[in-house]
Every structure is written in C-alpha cells, then in structure tokens.
Amino acid sequence: MNQLPNSIEARDIAFQLHSYTDARKHEDNGPLVIEKGDGIYVEDNNGKRYIEGMAGLWSVAVGFGEKRLVEAATRQMEKLPYYHTFSHRTHGPSVELAEKLISMAPVPMSKAYFTNSGSEANDTAIKLIWYRSNALGQPERKKIISRVRGYHGVTIASASLTGLPNNHRSFDLPIANILHTSSPHYHSMKKDGEIETDFAKRCAQDLEDMIRAEGPETIAAFFAEPVMGAGGVVIPPQGYWEAVQPILKKYDILFVADEVICGFGRTGNMFGTQTYNLEPDMMTLSKGISSSYLPMSALLVNEKVYGPMADESHKIGVWGHGYTASGHPVAAAVALENLKIIEERDLVGHVRDISPAFLRRLHSLGGHPLARESRGVGLIGAVEFAHEALSATPGALGGKINMAFQEQGLISRNMGDAMAFCPPLIITEKQVNEMFDIAESGIETIA
Ligand code: PLP
C-alpha cells in the first residue's frame, strides 16, 4: 500500500467509512483504488488492469466507458438537470422510462414507481403492500415472508427482508412482521439421499407450513430473487418455483420478484421471471437498468396492487411517500439509453450465446480439488470452495482466494467460501476464457 500521508490510500483510511469492510483491517491494509474502466476491464492507480468479473456490484451490464451513456447524461444535464415527480409534477425522461419498463415487463404490469437503489425499491414495495392491506380493510395482513440467504438490501425494512446474519446481527434486525422461510440451496440443505425435486418440494412445504402456522390471513407478500445473488448465487432447485407459486396463489399472497440482479439479461432472458416462468405481482429493478452509471431503481406493480392503492390515496388525499430524486431526469435518460443499447446489441441473445462457454469453464473450476460445488445460469455463477481444506473458519479460504484472484488481475467477490462470477454482459468468449484462466492460476497459488 502507498504509505505517503497525502496518498489517496492514506486519505481514504483517514476519512472514508466503507461498506462490507472490517474497519480495523482496512486501517492496516488500505484500499484498492480503481481509477478508470473500459469494457470488462478496470485499472488501478498503479496502472494494473483487472477483469471486472463482478461487473462492479453485479451491475455494469454494458461495460465500462460506454460513451453513449455519457452523452445521454450530458444532453439531459444541459436541458433539465433536475426535477421531481411529487404532487402531479413530471418530466419527459421519467415518463418515457416508466412507459418503456411497463412495455418490457414479462407479465402485465400497471405502473412504475421510481427509487434510487434496490434497497429503496424493496422498502417502497413493503410500504405499498402494507398500505394496500389497510386500503382493503385487512389491517392484520402485514406479515411478509422472504428467504434465508435472500438479499434485498440494507435499509431497515429491506435489511430485515435480507436473510443473512451479517445484515441482522448487531443491528437489532429483523423488524416485526418479516419472516424467513428455508433457503433453497440444495447442496448445503439437502438431507442424506434426498433428490433435488424432493428437496424443492420440502422447501415449498416449509413455506406452506409457515403460512398455516402464522395464519394465511396475516400474510401479505412473499419476496424472492429468481436466482439468489449475494446469498451465494443460489440457483433454484428443479421444481422449486413450480411448487412455490401455487401456494402463493392458494393463499392470495402477493409475489414480489426482486429482479435487481436478474433483470436486464443476466440469466439469459430479459428478466429472471421469464427464465423461471414466474408470475409476480410486483417487480423491483435496479443495477442493470442503468448499468449503475447513475443510481436508478424502479418498482413495477400490477393492477391488483395499484387499484386499491389508488383508491386509498384518493380517500386520504395522498400516497405519502417519495424520494427527492425519484425518477431523476438524468438517471432516467441514462437508463433509457442503456436499455436501448441492451436491445440494439441484443445483449440478451449474446448472454445465451456465451453462457455455455461460461458455464463450461465455471464447472471446470468447480472440479478443482479445493472446490465443493459450482452453480450457474446465463452469465452468473459461483464456485463453492471447501474451507476445511485450509482452515476451520468458514470464509477464510474465500477471502484468500479473493486476494489471489486480485493479485492475478481478476476482481471477483467471495460470499463466505463461494467465489462469484458475474461479468459485464458484453464479455466475449475469449474474455470468458481469459477470466477463468486467471482464476485457475490464482487457485494454484493457494493449493
Ligand atoms: N436486491 C438484490 C437482489 C440485490 O442484489 C441488491 C444489492 O446487491 C439489492 C436488492 C439492494 O440494492 P442496493 O445496494 O442498490 O440498495
């Protein structure tokens, strides 16, 4: 690390607090300073290049350095840098983006509501669900079920939905009315000899048992990612969604698909909802919507949600919710241009073309003696390493591999001992091979 007192590293340690970082370790080790990016690559302040194997945080779909997004932002900045969408006010970019998202939605959706992060989109979804229950005269229908290992954000309500210990421990979370049903991770949760389809049925039965134990009339909604991302890239076991969805319908429970990672091509269709034949009532979108060039997220709701909500806001005068930057015109203009690029370049078709090569190399890495399992779909995957091979502490091996990959020029992300791969959607087959070649040589420095 650069130790000079005026270096960016020293000033980072002095002044900045980081997410998902051991603060004391950071004081000793300092940051990795990324200075620029181009395509699937980023470069640090020493001129070292890395493949961004995580597309930032699962998000830079069109890659770094996309000039069209810069130009779209500049045009909108010059015309109208800011306006809001409160109290009957609106502007062109937010209307256009709402119309675009409703037209892209794979199931009938009625309205788009804009927020600025995945957490805010999920938080807003919870508030809207509670508001709707009150509007329907069902004030007892407030409980929401999400899943162990699900990730839905970090605001107080969305962190409560998240089913990971680090997001609850020491924060006094989850809040009341948020329940977690079983994780659908077959390899870690299956019983001895249990086949995948039986495991999927058992997960669905756990959900139904929870609904019945709590009282179906108290359950308002079920939140789930089509494929779990930050919880370790958990691909739904065979038969899972086919078993879960009828239960939600049976008890008239709203289904919220958190498409924050899966949306906009990641799983080989525009939405994870299509990959797994889902029929959500609400969808939350972020990340790929603008390739994270600017913060943007959206909540799509169907008529079943919008109708009672609109009647209620008419009764009391307003829907008392909103963010200063909801539907920000510059972020909306960038998102529109980003979606245009995804469609014009047929990045969804590209993901389908490139996915077999990606999965072949992912599973081949998963065959390494230090690995336990590999899993993936489209252009998202993970290899689970066996921490017992090196240390008794879960996560220690993942941390080590993370650093080894970084040394070799690959940015990945370890979730415990699972290494995730989620590159920009524009990655070529040659670059997929380059990425896994680096990963393989990184592992060899450990083994
Ligand atoms: N939902 C999912 C599936 C996510 O992966 C994330 C972030 O990684 C979020 C919600 C939260 O989004 P944000 O970090 O923008 O608040």
TrEMBL record:
Pfam name, any one: Aminotran_3
Family annotation (PANTHER family): ADENOSYLMETHIONINE-8-AMINO-7-OXONONANOATE AMINOTRANSFERASE (PTHR42684)
Coiled coil: none
Protein name: Aspartate aminotransferase family protein
UniProt record similarity statement: Belongs to the class-III pyridoxal-phosphate-dependent aminotransferase family.
InterPro entries, alphabetized: Aminotrans_3, Aminotrans_3_PPA_site, PyrdxlP-dep_Trfase, PyrdxlP-dep_Trfase_major, PyrdxlP-dep_Trfase_small
SUPFAM superfamilies the record matches: PLP-dependent transferases
Entry cofactors: pyridoxal 5'-phosphate
Keywords: Aminotransferase, Pyridoxal phosphate, Transferase
Gene Ontology molecular functions: transaminase activity
CDD domains found in the cross-reference section: OAT_like (cd00610)
NCBIfam families hit by this protein: PRK06105.1
